[in-house]
Design goal:
The protein has one helix and 26 strands. It has 504 residues and is mainly β. The longest helix has 22 residues.
């Protein structure tokens, strides 16, 4: 009887565990880590300063899939994605972070840590109509690559139209949110001014308040032959901005306060495809703050055969800046490019691509007067032209490839000519890999003939890709780069990479 009483609870626990496991919910996880180590020394063409860097960039990602409680084919899906980045530089000199030094660089940190992205992703809710993201995320569209903290909601209708709306705060450096300044508009330097006195680096602005941002988009959905998207985005500045670059008679500086526009733009893009004929595309961006078209693009592709494609492109780019930037008050012109290209695939092993075209630069004054004693006439809008061409090809064999890329650009301001040859080869079924690059480039500056030079570079590298366990993969690689020219002498760079991914 004692033996039966001893086994009875164990049997009950076993049955309970069996039932619990039958009802348990399992999700998939993925852990991915990378390590890039760069060692290089760069000497300024002017002799000083000598920049020495010892950078260690590490990322760690955690992804969770199928978090929803009920799994239904083509039903709702819930997942979580995140990635951290540590960009350490042990090669910085102490004086570069010393506010009392002439070499001080505001905002420079030895080991900045940022959250690249971390968001909850929901798809196909409400019978496939609703999708959403919550957290730090990227937005990639005609307006560019951008990041914010907040919510994004996507409503996809059966009428081949999708509506998207998002709101939150632009990711910026200087805030205690593990952020980076990579996604801010150009033209303003912001960050954490802790440790700086009032008069030290006044143009480096304090970033202490969140920058609200919002936007929306309307795009086509479900049409294989057509995709179009209209989008709008606005970002608001709330921190103080310096409006007087010099001290006044009382030794003070003037600042502007209050909410104001950082950037506000609208854009439209469209692409139509016919698998037998070709494709036509176009896009335009209008900067509402500057009240000017800042970018447009037109393209046409003709699929002459399955292996031959011809295309023409026209695009325009005008630099724009944050609403607080002083560069908004300086005149600047855009660049227009016209190119024609051909892509030929002679076989699965051999591909060749070629292009030719011209660039037109708008200038303040006639370029021919720049180098004269009289100087440019700013009452006249001038133009200068560059003519460019490129040729590229790749030959693949069963365990490697050989690629050649050559370019040429020439105009009234000088020229750039060059080519590089890249070879890759794998060994032991891809367990080992190797890399070799040779490049030669020559450039000439018509306004500064002493800056003309010919540069030679080579890169040698290799890697190994072991499988540590049945559910993991990884690669370790090393590259050595050596560049030499008469302006900077010898430059060296060493890159080591480690990639590891674990699936469960």
């Amino acid at each position: 009887m004692l033996a039966k009483r001893t086994r009875s609870p164990l049997i009950g626990v076993g049955l309970w565990a069996t039932l619990y496991v039958a009802r348990a919910h399992a999700y998939q996880s993925e852990v991915d880590a990378t390590l890039d180590a760069q060692f290089y020394s760069l000497q300024s063409p002017y002799g000083s300063p000598l920049v020495q860097r010892r950078r260690y960039t590490q990322t760690l990602a955690l992804n969770l899939y199928e978090l929803q409680t009920d799994r239904v084919a083509l039903g709702p899906q819930l997942s979580f994605r995140s990635r951290l980045r540590l960009d350490t530089d042990f090669g910085q000199r102490p004086e570069e972070r010393n506010p009392d030094s002439s070499s001080f660089t505001p905002g420079l940190a030895e080991a900045p840590l940022d959250v690249m992205y971390a968001y909850l992703d929901g798809q196909r809710y409400l019978n496939g109509w609703l999708g959403f993201r919550l957290g730090r995320q990227y937005v990639v569209d005609t307006l560019g690559f951008w990041s914010f903290d907040g919510a994004d909601v996507l409503l996809t209708t059966p009428a081949y139209v999708a509506f998207e709306a998002y709101a939150g705060f632009e990711q910026r450096g200087g805030l205690p949110m593990l952020g980076t300044s990579r996604f801010e508009a150009d033209g303003v330097s912001r960050g954490d001014r802790s440790g700086l006195s009032f008069g030290q680096s006044p143009s480096f602005l304090q970033e202490s308040k969140l920058a609200p941002a919002y936007g929306f988009a309307i795009e086509s959905a479900g049409l294989h032959f057509l995709h179009s998207r209209f989008t709008y985005r606005k970002v608001i500045n709330r921190d103080a901005v310096l409006v007087s670059p010099f001290l006044d008679n009382g030794g003070g500086l003037r600042y502007a306060l209050g909410d104001r526009t950082s950037s506000e733009r609208i854009a439209y893009s469209v692409r139509a495809d016919d698998s037998d004929l070709g494709a036509a595309l176009g896009s335009v961006i209008y900067d509402l703050y500057n009240r000017r078209v800042s970018q447009w693009n037109l393209g046409l592709d003709w699929y002459a055969t399955e292996r031959v494609v011809f295309g023409v492109n026209a695009d325009y780019f005008l630099p724009t800046f944050d609403g607080d930037s002083i560069f908004n008050w300086f005149a600047h012109r855009g660049t227009t490019s016209l190119t024609a290209r051909a892509d030929l695939a002679f076989s699965r092993q051999l591909e060749v691509a070629a292009s030719a075209g011209a660039k037109m630069f708008g200038t303040e004054g006639e370029p021919s007067n720049y180098a004269t004693s009289a100087g440019p006439n700013l009452d006249v809008t001038g133009k200068t032209y560059d003519y460019l061409a490129s040729l590229g090809g790749r030959y693949r064999f069963w365990d490697g490839s050989l690629a050649l890329n050559a370019m040429a650009e020439s105009g009234g301001a000088g020229h750039r000519y060059g080519a590089d040859l890249t070879g890759r080869k794998r060994f032991e079924g891809g367990y080992y890999d190797s890399l070799a690059v040779l490049s030669v480039y020559d450039w000439d500056d018509a306004l500064r003939s002493d800056r003309s030079a010919t540069s030679f570079s080579y890169v040698l590298g290799g890697g190994v890709s072991p499988s540590f366990m049945l559910f993991s993969r990884g690669r370790f690689g090393v590259e050595w780069e050596h560049t030499m020219n008469r302006l900077v002498g010898q430059r060296f760079r060493m890159l080591a990479t480690l990639e590891l991914s674990v699936l469960r």
